[in-house]
# Entry
Amino acid sequence: MPAPEPTTGPLTPEELQLATRNRGMPLEALRYDTTPTGLHYLLVHFDIPAVDAAAWRLRVGGSVERELSLSLDEIRARPRETLAVTLECAGNGRARLVPRPVSQPWLNEAVGTAEWTGTPLASVLDEAGLKPGTVELVFTGADHGVEKELEHDYARSLSLAEATRPQVLLAYEMNGRPLEPQHGFPLRLLVPGWYGMAHVKWLTRIDAVREPFEGYQQRIAYYYRQDADDPGEPVTRIRPRALMVPPGFPDFLTRQRILDSGRVEVSGRAWSGLAPVSQVEFGVEGVWTPAKLEEPLGKHAWCRWTAAWDATPGEHLLSCRASDAAGNRQPTDSAWNYQGMGNNAVQTVRVLVR
# Structure
């Protein structure tokens, strides 16, 4: 069916159906340096494939000197690296836009940081031998379905420069254990710094190509567009964002926070795929003060921030925002776009101090 137009109405049954299949990270889980696997955000476009690990092979072909067919054991026997990497869905914040693009209705919670273990992609490509004229690598997963009337395997491409970065991994472990089925077992691509759509799960093929890849997930989905006809700009790296651990305790329905007056330490995490985080500011009713930053878990992982707040009785609106070393800072207001991508407007948390 054609893409539904953005709406100001309530969530549609289709959005609710997506929301029950996919899950966000509860924001209180920001207290963990690395997100427990069961709390890490999850987005599955189609079905979780049933993969027989014994029969599975990763095939490398296309514009290469030597086609490869690698078993999971052969990939695990290669040099291994472990990286702490923060992943965020490109649609994080979509449900906060007005009018709301109709898709997975994320608020702020589509994020998580894990320790990923795998082998560098570059060494596999070296073994295959890329032929002159290769411009991109296409990564195809085992998940298959229909989106906007187009039937396809989920597939994305990367330029040679991006794909051969030493941090790009063929990952087979998450937090020290084999990948869970929903996180891409037996193998997924890990592209540190990029939004989640680039980290192809259930990886089955890598094809070197001499022309830019024109698949649906590459050329139609994941664009910053102002309307259906706007050619737009592709979504790539993660924009800066800070989130706070909601202080106090919540009201069940509204999630408004309740806490006692006095000195409160507010904390959270901040990250950017564009450059290292350089500053986090904590806001009360729109008055900003610098927060204290701790060292990040790694070059491509979030860092912890803390701020002291003297909470006085009454209702208050708390917020936080991150800036990175390239001069990018979270906006106060959402920048609307047709697909609801990359909305990194500042988080606000309403609290009642008693």
